[in-house]
Amino acid sequence: MSTASLSTTITPGLDRPLKNRTSARQTVSNSLTMAYRGLLKIKRTPEQLVDVTVQPILFTVMFTVLFGGAISGDMASYLPLLIPGILVQTVLTTSVVTGVQLREDMDKGVFDRFKSLPIARISPLVGALLADTVRYAIATTITWIVGYALGYRPEAGLGYVVLASLLIIACAWSISWIFAFFGVIARSASSVQGISMSVLFPLTFLSNAFVPIDTLPTWLQPLVNLNPISHLITAVRGLADTGTIGVDVLLALAGAAVVVLVFAPLTVRAYMRKA
Amino acid sequence: MTTMTHVLTDSGTLLHRNLLHMLRYPALTYFVVGGPVVFLFLFVFVFGGQLGAGLPSTGGSDRAAYLAYVVPGILLTAAAGTAGGTATTVAMDMTEGITARFRTLAISRAAVLTGHVLGNTIQGLIAVTLVLGVSVLIGFRPNANPIEWLAAFGMTTLILLAITWLAVAMGMASKSVESASNLPTLLVLLPFLGSGFVPTDTMPAVVQVFAEYQPFTPFIETIRGLLLGTPIGLSWLWAIVWCLVISVIGYVWSMRIYNRRSVV
């Protein structure tokens, strides 16, 4: 065997044609790997699922048991109004975690490590957002189960319940871009939590989640009618209780699309600047 | 100077320390007031129309009837909310070593805890007064005479003393400041699981039994009766008994931990 066949030509780094872009295929692959990392984090630290497991149970039981009788006369007649409201509130609150965990990862320096790897820069961000859809699915499932255990029977049947769940998960995913943006630009994880909750708390409670709009003060009703969360809740109620795909479903999807179109580029730009 | 005079003087000094803390860190008072005020607006303006429909009419709207009903519950939510801050400050003193420092001084042992209790009771009274002020601004109209106002003030002070003694014990029993702030949150749930926000007869049977026999129901019914003239019955007596029981438990528990844990 000649020595010539063993020799390899090493091209100096300066002369090598380096790529500073990744293909769409590689970006998708990297993002899925990062999503898998997110799922592993959930598997290794299941206590981080406390919010998606305890909150829906606590809120549903508390509102039904404590206020059901006073609001609707009895628990059973309050459930069709309450469960879709609790469902939307729980899943949207869960989406805050996206921003908080993103900020924690950035503070710990793990994103600095990702920067040094030959992967798509955007993949850690997209991966985190994808992994969180599992959290939304868990929160949604638990809320439906608790509602069912308390006596709620969606009139439209299982197919429409699944459709309603997918609508909520899609909207929560779109809203998680807002919190991801906060996560990228904020100074600390606690400030992300603070900002996010101060936005979400009034939005979820100043909606038709817990009481019919016509029981609210007249000056508050226009505000509640304008609230996008009210449209999402009405859409979910329509799907689960009557099986109707009405204007509110389209409004909810359009709203979700607008949020993604506005906040995805903002988040990506802010993230790229930091990365 | 007698032993009692020593205790009072030392308690006064440590009360002054706690009041200085309150002035230097007003955020804690804002937090104690902020939560109940948010609940007040939420329950009156969002749930009030619906929840007020089932209440006896007061001549006004359903929302006005509910405002009158819910304010005593909100006031006691504010009182219960002070427990978190109390437990946190006590836990900070325990973990940062200042309590161990006090142990080496020639001061009354009880005074260290009494200073905390009195300081936080005053903070609680300020919080309750501010929440009451906001309630009046949005339309709450109590019809109490001066004696009833005085009785309501006395009852609130007793309740705050009881809650604070329990919170001090919780703060001392906690291993960390974080767990100390979480432990008393259960107290904030009690007005909800009582007659604070809805009449107990609208609740399921099991919850109703708990709601009627837990301490916050007589507390709320007594304050409601004194401020609005609703029937009190024996609630005032049960309220005083509960205050004494909770205070004794808190005092004994905290003194036992103080004597055992704060040795250098």
From TrEMBL, chain A:
Top-rank taxon: Bacteria
Membrane association type: Multi-pass membrane protein
UniProt similarity note: Belongs to the ABC-2 integral membrane protein family.
A molecular-function term among this protein's GO annotations: ABC-type transporter activity
Region (Disordered): 1-26
Keyword terms: Antibiotic resistance, Cell membrane, Membrane, Transmembrane, Transmembrane helix, Transport
Residues annotated as transmembrane: 49-72, 78-102, 122-146, 158-182, 194-213, 249-272
One annotated GO biological process: response to antibiotic
PROSITE patterns xref list: ABC_TM2 (PS51012)
Pfam families per UniProt: ABC2_membrane
Gene Ontology cellular-component annotations: ATP-binding cassette (ABC) transporter complex
Name recorded for this polypeptide: Transport permease protein
Organism from which the protein derives: Cryobacterium arcticum
TrEMBL record, chain B:
GO molecular function: ABC-type transporter activity
Topology of the protein relative to the lipid bilayer: Multi-pass membrane protein
Pfam hit, one: ABC2_membrane
Regions crossing the membrane: 27-47, 67-91, 112-137, 149-168, 180-198, 235-253
Organism classification: Bacteria, Bacillati, Actinomycetota, Actinomycetes, Micrococcales
Organism: Cryobacterium arcticum
An example Gene Ontology CC term for this record: ATP-binding cassette (ABC) transporter complex
Primary site of residence: membrane
Protein name as annotated: Transport permease protein
UniProt keyword annotation of Thylakoid present: no
Entries under InterPro entries matching the protein: ABC2_TM, ABC2_TM_bact-type, ABC_2_transport, Nod_factor_ABC_transporter
Cell compartment(s), UniProt: Cell membrane; Membrane
Top-level taxon of origin: Bacteria
Boundaries of every ABC transmembrane type-2 domain copy: 27-261
GO biological process: response to antibiotic
Keywords: Antibiotic resistance, Cell membrane, Membrane, Transmembrane, Transmembrane helix, Transport
Record-stated family: Belongs to the ABC-2 integral membrane protein family.
